[in-house]
C-alpha cells in the first residue's frame, strides 16, 4: 500500500528461508506472487508502476540443476568468502589480491545497522570498520568525518592495499569518473589510522598470514 510492488530477496541462511516463505503465506497480504528467479523468465526490474506485487527469490538451493546454480558468480566482496571454498566457488587466488582498482562505494551510499552503526560499505559484512554511530553524531558529520575522507582519498587512487577491509575484496565498481574526490590530499603516513581502526577478526588475519607466506615463497623461488 506504500508503493512497493517489487521485492528482490536473497536468502543466505538455510535456517530462515522457509520460515520467511511461511510468514508471507500466512500474512494475509493479497496479490503477491513468489517467483523462483532460476525457473522464471520474469525480470525483477520490469514492474515499476505495476500494482501486481512479486517477490523474486534467488536462493541457490531452489535451483533445479547445477547449471542454474552456476548462473550466479560468487564474488569475494569485502573479503567475505571463506578461503577454504575459494577453489570450489570462485576463480581467484591469494596472489590476485589486492585488486588495485578504484572503488566508489563509500562515495555514494551509507550502510547503517539496527544499532545505528555506520560501516565502511555494504560489503563489510564483518563490520570491521565502524565510521560512527547515528545515536552519537549526525549523518552529515559522519559522512564528512576525516576517517571517511581518508578512505575516499585512498580508494580514489586505487590503493585498496592500504585498507585492510578492502584488501581481499574483488568488488568492481563502474562509472568511477562520476564520483571524484575533492577533499584534502593525505600522505601515506596519515592514512595509517585506517589500519589502526580496523577490526578484521581471526579469519581475515589468517588470510594476511597466508598471503605473506605466498610472497615469501615467491621470493625464495626467484
TrEMBL record:
Name all 4Fe4S-binding SPASM domain ranges. 103-170
The protein's matches in Gene3D superfamilies, at most eight in alphabetical order, are given as: Aldolase class I
Q: Which InterPro entries match?
A: 4Fe4S-binding_SPASM_dom, Aldolase_TIM, rSAM_sf
Would you tell me the protein name for this molecule?
Answer: 4Fe4S-binding SPASM domain-containing protein
**Organism the protein comes from:** marine sediment metagenome
Amino acid at each position: 500500500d506504500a508503493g512497493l510492488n517489487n521485492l528482490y530477496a536473497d536468502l543466505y541462511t538455510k535456517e530462515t528461508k522457509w520460515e520467511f516463505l511461511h510468514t508471507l503465506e500466512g500474512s494475509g497480504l493479497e496479490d503477491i506472487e513468489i517467483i523462483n528467479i532460476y525457473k522464471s523468465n520474469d525480470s525483477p526490474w520490469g514492474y515499476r508502476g505495476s500494482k501486481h506485487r512479486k517477490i523474486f527469490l534467488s536462493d541457490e538451493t531452489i535451483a533445479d540443476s547445477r547449471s542454474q546454480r552456476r548462473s550466479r558468480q560468487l564474488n569475494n566482496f569485502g573479503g567475505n568468502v571463506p578461503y577454504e571454498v575459494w577453489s570450489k566457488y570462485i576463480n581467484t587466488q591469494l596472489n590476485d589480491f589486492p585488486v588495485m582498482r578504484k572503488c566508489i562505494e563509500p562515495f555514494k551510499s551509507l550502510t547503517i545497522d539496527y544499532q545505528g552503526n555506520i560501516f565502511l560499505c555494504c560489503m563489510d559484512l564483518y563490520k570491521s570498520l565502524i565510521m560512527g554511530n547515528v545515536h552519537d553524531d549526525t549523518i552529515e558529520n559522519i559522512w564528512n568525518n576525516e576517517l571517511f575522507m581518508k578512505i575516499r582519498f585512498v580508494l580514489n587512487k586505487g590503493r585498496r592495499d592500504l585498507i585492510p577491509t578492502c584488501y581481499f575484496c574483488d568488488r568492481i565498481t563502474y562509472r568511477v569518473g562520476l564520483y571524484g574526490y575533492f577533499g584534502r590530499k593525505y600522505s601515506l603516513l596519515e592514512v595509517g589510522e585506517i589500519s589502526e581502526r580496523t577490526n578484521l577478526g581471526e579469519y581475515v588475519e589468517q588470510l594476511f598470514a597466508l598471503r605473506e607466506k605466498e610472497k615469501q615463497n615467491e621470493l625464495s623461488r626467484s
